[in-house]
Amino acid sequence: MTGSGTRVALLFLDLDRFKSVNDTLGHLAGDELLVEVAARLKTCVRKSDTIARLGGDEFTVILEGLDAPVDAEIVCRKIIKSLEAPLLLQNHEIYVTTSIGVTFFPSDDTDLNGLLRNADAAMYRAKEEGRNKFHLFTADLSARAVKRMGIESALRHAVERQEFYLVYQPKISVQTGEVLGAEALLRWENPQRGLVSPVDFIPVAEETGLIVPIGEWVLRRACADIRKWHAAGFDHVSVAVNLSARQFRHGELIQTIRQALQDSGIAARQLELEITESLLMDDTEASQIALNDLKALGTSIFLDDFGTGYSSLAYLKKFPIDGLKIDRSFIRDLPGDPDDEAITHAILALSQALRLRVVAEGVENEAQLEFLRRAGCSVVQGFFFSRPLVFDKFLEWLQRTTPARVGIAGNQGW
Ligand code: C2E
Ligand code: MG
Ligand code: MG
């Protein structure tokens, strides 16, 4: 390390999974951990450098007199390495890792707040890259960061402030027009931001871990709601809940689901779970165990957005999947687009051969429905039948369309 340069680096460190230590071993253990981490950080820098704890599990390190960015990279590698040896906390061996964002004065910014924001944005990128990594700030990170930071802080209070609600979109039998169930879709209405799309806030909830309490709320609410439909006479209607990979990693998912089922008194087979392939790619061993547990519980598991990712056929064999949802991007240009027609036929043939259930999502018109019916698709979902509706409206919709059967204007001979 040199000390003669004019460059200053600001490192922003966030401990990965610190919260789980705090939650499982208590705050005293959490404090001990922070003390030990601080001691190890000290061994990685020179006396003249500054280490500060910003609060929670966040630290900053200021390295002065650097010649080149690579000097800061060396320190980052040292820090990551220094945390490799386990910590002994109350007789538990704890492994901590950290994600580090790095920004430079004066080249990235000359203002302290600006530098902190940069380093924070770079730190999030490091987390996205899989944790236990460092990332240097680049300008494109900042616009993204401003948006996601705003979402994050608002999201932190959204559960307690009751800003979430669920909407339901029916899944309909192509053969009989019957409503088989509904997919629960999360909505967030924030007083300042208005209605925020799940496409914008779910990724932030996943990155920050907030998806765990939010997802638990979704499961509980969906199970409670389906109970009310049953009480209103629609006792065959199932509910599908979307799950994020992060919820599987958390480890308490099975317990949460069991509890939600028990509290609402609904049967496990009336709960469907929609997962995405990223979960299967993520951590095959752990996901396989969790999926097997869910299967043993009696819930059904659907692979969402099928066809958009790797769509590895090995997953279908390896994991206990009950069905596939054909992504709406393949349905949109049906009929007429030869590629999408071929893909849809192929997914349907595949599901039939593997005895998987299949749902086509994003059905918006009669021509699409007709194509899917001829192709042998048994369940459909989409705006053609109904947009996602809040609980009361969904119930009204059920009452209106049953037993007259759904959507197809009654003249389709179903
Ligand atoms: P998804 O699970 O694939 O949900 C289907 C999305 O397609 C929904 O968007 C739905 O409103 C929309 N959709 C349904 N029919 C049509 C149609 O005919 N045409 C078009 N253009 N769109 C249609 P939404 O509600 O914005 O949700 C987006 C994604 O956010 C979901 O995709 C899901 O991945 C995620 N998401 C929603 N709620 C939850 C949740 O509670 N937990 C988790 N982890 N993810 C959720
Ligand atoms: Mg879904
Ligand atoms: Mg989908």
What would you say this structure looks like, in words?
The chain is an alpha/beta fold and 414 residues long. It has two domains: 131 residues, Alpha-Beta Plaits, CATH 3.30.70; 250 residues, EAL domain (TIM Barrel, Alpha-Beta Barrel), CATH 3.20.20.450. 46% of the residues lie in helices and 23% in strands. The chain has 16 helices and 17 strands. The strands form three sheets. The chain has an eight-stranded mixed beta barrel, surrounded by four helices. The protein has a five-stranded mixed β-sheet with strand order 2-3-1-6-7. The protein has a two-stranded antiparallel ribbon with strand order 4-5. Helix 15 links the parallel strand 15 and strand 16. The radius of gyration is 25 Å and the shape is elongated. The C terminus is likely disordered. Ligand C2E binds next to strand 9, helix 6, helix 7 and strand 13. The site of ligand C2E has 23 residues, from strand 9, helix 6, helix 7 and strand 13.
